[in-house]
Amino acid sequence: MIGLLIKDLCNTKKMILWYLATVIICFVVSVLLKNISYLYAMGIVSEISIIMTTFAYEERDSWPKFVAASGLNPKIIVLEKYVIGVGVGIIANLFSIVAFALIKTQENSWAELVILILFQIIVISCCLPAIYKFGVEKSRIFLIAIILIAVCFMIGIAEFVFKKINITSGAIISIISLFVILLSIIVSYFISLKIYNKKEF
Question: How far is C-alpha 106 from the geometric centre of its chain's CA atoms?
Fold first, then answer.
């Protein structure tokens, strides 16, 4: 696991630094404009882009054939991608939490932030099985569609939904969202693992 993580981090270190700088800029913009949507959108884009890049490097270098021949446990191989995706998401969401705390007003509730994090996790949970099934190039259109849906949710539906949230409903929504976050990651992992085990390298 550690070796796989080091490999992916080395392959994507320049991209990670670039997205980190972009997230910091979006953090400043979000705080100044009191609108977390910029940071939210960049969080999703950075997560998906970094994950796709790790797969792209592997496909280019025929890594899947090598690692399959090495006898490494498929559970570890698949789990490592989820660690990368969730790890990038955690970093982006740390900025989101700080930004949200700085701009929090009476109209805001922490349930809003939990819902946005939930949607990010759902995006990752949809994208990883798609990449394992179709590869980076064939799944690119699907991934772009997922990102657009997520951004549209933030711009349109989320604003309407957030206005309906009060303290009681916010607490219930937060608990349900946390449960769905955990469930979506687990279900997505096992779907990806099943797809990987059926692959012929």
Answer: 28
Three-state helix/strand/coil letters over 10-34: HHCHHHHHHHHHHHHHHHHHHHHHC
Per the structure, the count of domains in the chain is 1
The segment with the largest mean pLDDT, out of 107-116, 136-145, 166-175, is 136-145
H or E element at residue 111 = helix 110-152
Q: 163-176, pLDDT tens digit by residue?
A: 555 555 556 777 78
Model pTM score: 0.82
What is the span of the domain harbouring residue 60? 2-198
**Worst-scoring range by mean pLDDT, 49-63, 71-85, 139-153?**
139-153
Residue 109 tokens read as: 């509730």
**What phi and psi, each to the nearest 5 degrees, are found at residue 108?**
-95, 155
Query: How far apart (Å, rounded) are the C-alpha atoms in residues 141 and 147?
Result: 10
Closest CA to 186 of 45, 75, 71: 75
Of the candidates 86, 68, 88, the one whose C-alpha atom is nearest the C-alpha of residue 76 is 68
